[in-house]
Write a structure and sequence with these properties.
Layout (H helix, E strand, L loop, with lengths): L5 E3 L13 E2 L11 H6 E6 L3 E9 L2 E4 L21 E5 L10 E10 L6 E5 L10 E2 L9 E6 L1 E3 L9 E11 L2 E6 L14 E5 L5 E10 L13 E6 L4 H8 L4 E5 L2 E5 L5 E5 L7 E3 L4 E7 L2 E6 L4 E5 L7 E4 L2 E7 L2 E6 L4 E5 L7 E4 L2 E7 L2 E6 L4 E5 L7 E4 L2 E7 L2 E6 L4 E5 L7 E4 L4 E5 L2 E6 L2 E6 L7 E5 L1 E7 L2 E6 L4 E5 L7 E4 L1
Parallel strand pairs: 9-15
Antiparallel strand pairs: 1-11, 2-15, 3-4, 3-6, 4-5, 5-8, 6-7, 7-8, 10-12, 10-14, 12-13, 13-16, 14-15, 15-16, 17-18, 18-19, 19-20, 21-22, 22-23, 23-24, 25-26, 26-27, 27-28, 29-30, 30-31, 31-32, 33-34, 34-35, 35-36, 37-38, 38-39, 39-40, 41-42, 42-43, 43-44
GO molecular function, one term: serine-type endopeptidase activity
GO biological process, one term: proteolysis
Protein name: Peptidase S1 domain-containing protein
Length: about 500
Amino acid sequence: MARRSWVVRTLAGALALTAGVVPAASAVQGSAPTGAAAAATVKIAVGEVRACSGALVGPSWVVTAKSCFAATPGAAVAQGAPTERTTATVGRTDLTSTAGHEVAVTLVVPHPDRDLVLVRLAAPVTDVAPVAVATTGPVPGEDLTVTGYGRTTTQWVPDVAHAATYTVTTVNPGTVDLRAASPDASVCKGDAGGPTLRTTPAGGVELVAIHHTADQGGCLGASTSGQAARDTRVDDLRDWITRSTTPTQQVALGGSRIAVLTDDRRAQVKDGGLRADWVQLLGANAKQVVVDGTRIAVLAEDGVAWVKDGATTATFVPVFTNVREIALSGNRIGVLTRGGEARVKEGDLYAPWVVEATGVTSLVLSGNRIGVVNDGGEAHVKEGSLSADWVVVYPGVKSLVMSGNRIGVLTKSGEVRVKEGGLRADWVVQSSGVTSLSLSGNRIGILKNGQAHVKEGPLGATWVLEASGVTSLVLSGNRIGVVDQAGKAHVKEGDLYAGWVVVWQ
């Protein structure tokens, strides 16, 4: 927002400036933002014809208006790579300077119901602090700061971002209505998607909404005098934003196969060497991928569990619905339903299900062993047939892992214990302060303070630091897989000192 001297660029002149509320690609006339408000404000350029504003909500993610990516006003926006070359300029309120970063946009994730998209950057921005999404909604009478790169009163395409104060008038489901707090402020074309910010008691800011539509009074080329605006709320989208911006990439290993779940929720698999070709599995919206022997399982976001047996190109079979988690081991398939029921089948893909337990939060299969963690944090394991008796192996468990004759638990306090042999063998403490545990054969892997450590041999073997700056770790046979903080999947094969190969980025 700017003083009657600036207007923010949005849909690059694609929208007529008519009286009343018009689709926003609006701009903010006012003073230049400083501090946290400046850091939160991003310039979005879509091809050569459209420009909008946005807010950095994660090192690799910016939130902006969906309308910025519509080929024509009101057209649908699909998830995927942008149809035109798109860049985001972060940390550069004065576009004539060399401060900050100009980064390509590689993925657009539209919200299904609101004028809002998340865009992923080709490289993370690590020296500009993302803005936190507000935990509470706007309140009538509350003053908020609006910012953007839109037009001003005198400039079609200003080089400097602007900020102004707007007051909340009405709070609606999904939107918030505002009015300018001073006569020389306005939201203009080019401000679309720009942040509406609340100042926190600590002096920082949090994101309440993004610009949607505005009267655009006082903006260059506008014939209106109104100063009202309607923004898209984001405070009630915290879970969706967190889910969408948290790296979802998962690497899974099993035998000669490697699978990844990519950031755009697509499952891919390769069979053979680390540099074999990828095969896409099903469509988008995968939640989990598992590989074991000749079987591949994909759990979709809608809760349908799919399994195929044989070649990577074999046909998937839907095996169960309403699933939260799926597991494979040999000729067994296990599902944990959203209602907390653990079911296992043995044999072919069409074998009948056996209900193994209820009130379950985690399910693990390994050979002829089945393990669960119940609602109370107790880990139970059975060995043998599907009707074998359960044995309580440990309380206070965050996660349970099994491989061969080893059982491992990660406790809620971050301690890792592993036992070898029978279900009632003694536990051996392995480490503390751990966030993730993996077992395979005689290898144990842990994730601790972003570092992946692996040991090989007896339980008392020495740890080897395998990688730093990683978010997940998995072991299978002589392979080790990690995902780094940039979302790249790396796998090594052979001994613990083998070199890493980037298998997905």
